[in-house]
Amino acid sequence: MGKADEQAFRDFAERQAGALRRTAYLFCGDWHTAEDLMQATLLKLYQAWHRVEWRDNANAYARKVLLRTWLDERRRPWRRAEQRDGELPEVADAAADPDLAGERLWARDLVHAGLLRVPPRQRAVLVLRYFEDLPVSEVAVAMGCTEGTVKSQTARGLVALRAAVEAVEGRVVAS
């Protein structure tokens, strides 16, 4: 790889590492695993960086590589035995009402706990659609499926998320 390509990759990696890590965290629910996924994704991107045709849309390609890397990791049997207990990142909001802060944290934790119970492909669709705010067409490209599949997985994922949140909330209220 030439110096110009090397510098272009470094610039891209510096700009996108944080976003890739946050998306990976939403996929897997653990910051350490998210860091590993982000690094594996950047390594794969580095190895393919010489291909010029996708660089105009490098962010979309990076999300696709991240998604594939996460799905590959989930398929490994030794990963299934581990349970992660991560936390969603805190986001400072100067305009936030302090009286509602506890409720917001509780709701955030409740949704995150429910999200981790949603099947992987449905979770990926929900993360890309609602947390990454991607349109259906871009999610379809990232996941390698049709837009209709994205829409149906979104609907099923929302049903699964709703049920999971209600189950988690029921346990929290009962205890």
Automatic annotation (TrEMBL):
**Matches recorded under Gene3D superfamilies:** 1.10.1740.10, Winged helix-like DNA-binding domain superfamily/Winged helix DNA-binding domain
InterPro entries per record: RNA_pol_sigma-70-like, RNA_pol_sigma-70_dom, RNA_pol_sigma-E_actinobac, RNA_pol_sigma70_r2, RNA_pol_sigma70_r4_t2, RNA_pol_sigma_r2, RNA_pol_sigma_r3/r4-like, WH-like_DNA-bd_sf
The alphabetized UniProt keywords are: DNA-binding, Sigma factor, Transcription, Transcription regulation
Q: Which residues form the signal peptide?
A: none
Family note: Belongs to the sigma-70 factor family. ECF subfamily.
Species annotation = Actinosynnema pretiosum
- Which GO biological-process labels does this protein carry? DNA-templated transcription initiation
Keyword Transcription listed? The answer is yes
Q: Where is each RNA polymerase sigma-70 region domain found?
A: 15-79
| Segments forming domain RNA polymerase sigma factor 70 region 4 type | 111-161
**Which terms does the record give in the GO molecular function aspect?**
DNA binding; sigma factor activity
**CDD domains this protein is in?**
Sigma70_r4 (cd06171)
Q: What is this protein called?
A: SigE family RNA polymerase sigma factor
